[in-house]
Design goal:
Amino acid/polyamine transporter I; about 500 residues; globular; cell membrane; mainly alpha; transmembrane
């Protein structure tokens, strides 16, 4: 599956093994389109009504504006530390370290929490399809091992696996949509979802939280800078393609499932069967066999997201180790596969510990492990996106005016405002994501500012006690290169 790399330098990730397509697969697979649609979109319809498709399109537009400034800055950031490196370049090294700690917390909670969803979905599918009753912790631990195995074999292997899984999960959703439209839906095809009365209905503010959560991980293209071919070209291109695809695809699929039940009946259908809405639609318009296949592909979709987020976490960890902010041994790279295997081991051990705690306490894998653990990660990523947007403006206006363009600065300012508003909406609507008490919600959301405060305190300590380490925050290995002439922002 993966051979040795004869030109692989010690502690160096594989170079030039990911093209634009591979990067897109990594990013979109992290978002888990089938899981987002079958598992979350029915709730969005129930809360926001038939205008739900617009929330996904709106989130995509905001993130595209953000990507204009974000990718313009890519060519001037040598580190593969993504948000951490960008914020350090634009807002300073203290904020950079705050971002690093917040990113580690956010990506880990996103990845580990999803093991709860994987276990719940796999347990139900094994029981329904094969008549097997497997304890959810056993399933979760098996998934942890499988993620570690593929990640260990190298990013090129992981990209191929994610590519296959992404094609399958996207294909089954398109099959459902084609079946619905071919039959004319429940009562004819209409465009009521895009009418002003639907778009500005009272529940649509809350649905934006689901919209932005559906794009989690899109920025991870820059984490693979070391492994990308011609990163100044492939990273911006992959970022735009990924965001554009997800926005249009999500909007289209949600609109199609609304047609499956009819604009007048779909909200009631979603309220009556949140978890089964998509399976009922595909079973009705395509066949029961397709519903069974969708059940199986939901499992592979969740696994793809776990693998993609695991790869993102290990690249962050590797970048921090290279910058001297984590022990050097954590950043060691496998001599044959070129994977940050020690960072993979550390993340795997953390996942095992968290899963074990929830299993021992008898917690539900979906309502507790998934929803409670994931929520701080979703909030944290939006905060990081907002800080990064602000950092791009600061970078181009204060630190590198020569590289500034009116489009990049304007995009940075607009996306800063829009993402700040989106973060507020998400926090205000967090109960929709957790289905928990107000006290629990406060604790979960508070993990984000608490992490930032700890990061700030540690950064100030580093500046005073370890100035050399502080100076290396966000610097990477110094491979920043000027962009070739003619490359669009």
């Amino acid at each position: 599956m993966a051979g040795s790399s004869p030109d692989l330098a010690p502690d160096s990730l594989k170079r030039g093994v990911l093209g634009t397509g591979s990067l897109v697969f990594m990013v979109v697979a992290a978002a888990a389109p089938l899981t987002v649609m079958a598992g979350v979109a029915p709730l969005a319809i129930m809360v926001g009504g038939i205008g739900a498709p617009v929330a996904y399109l709106a989130a995509g537009i905001v993130l595209t504006v953000f990507a204009v400034a974000f990718t313009r800055m890519t060519r001037y950031v040598g580190s593969a530390g993504a948000f951490y490196a960008y914020i350090a370049k634009g807002l300073g090294k203290t904020w950079g370290f705050v971002a690093a700690l917040l990113a580690l917390m956010s990506y880990n909670t996103l990845q580990i929490g999803v093991y709860g969803l994987f276990a719940a979905q796999a347990k139900a599918t094994l029981a329904d399809v094969f008549g097997l009753d497997v304890p959810w912790p056993v399933i979760a631990f098996a998934a942890v091992a499988l993620v570690l195995l593929v990640a260990w074999l190298g990013i090129d292997v992981g990209a191929k696996v994610l590519g296959v899984l992404l094609v399958l999960e996207s294909g089954i959703l398109l099959l459902m949509a084609v079946g619905v439209l071919a039959h004319g839906g429940a009562s004819g095809v209409d465009a009521k979802s895009f009418a002003p009365s639907a778009v500005f209905s009272p529940g649509m503010g809350g649905v934006l939280a689901f919209g932005f959560a559906a794009f989690m991980g899109f920025e991870s293209t820059v984490l693979y800078r070391r492994e990308a071919r011609n990163p100044e070209r492939t990273i911006p291109r992959a970022t735009y393609i990924a965001v554009g695809f997800m926005a249009v695809f999500y909007g289209f699929i949600v609109w199609a499932v609304i047609q499956a039940f009819g604009s007048g009946q779909v909200v009631g259908a979603a309220a009556g069967d949140v978890g089964g809405l998509f399976f009922t639609a595909i079973g009705t318009y395509v066949g029961s066999w397709a519903a069974t296949v969708m059940h199986l592909l939901v499992i592979s979709s969740v696994y793809a997201a776990q693998l993609a987020f695991h790869n993102a976490i290990t690249r962050y960890t590797h970048a921090l180790a290279q910058d001297g902010l984590l022990p050097a041994w954590v950043g060691k790279v496998h001599p044959r596969y070129g994977s940050p295997y020690r960072a993979s081991i550390v993340q795997t051990v953390l996942a095992v510990v968290v899963i074990a705690v929830f299993a021992v306490t008898g917690a539900d894998p979906y309502t507790k492990l998934l929803l409670w653990v994931n929520t701080p990660g979703v909030v944290g990523i939006l905060v990081l996106q907002t800080l990064t947007a602000i950092a791009t403006v600061a970078y181009f206006l204060r630190r590198n005016k020569a590289a500034s363009t009116p489009l990049a600065v304007t995009a940075g300012i607009v996306s800063s405002v829009l993402l700040a508003v989106a973060t507020y909406i998400l926090v205000d609507s967090v109960g929709l994501l957790t289905n928990a008490s107000a006290t629990v919600n406060v604790v979960l959301v508070s993990l984000v500012p608490a992490t930032m405060l700890i990061g700030g305190a540690v950064a100030l300590w580093l500046r005073k006690r370890r100035p050399a380490a502080y100076a290396r925050i966000g610097e990477g290995d110094g491979e920043t290169q000027p962009a070739p002439e003619g490359i669009p922002a």
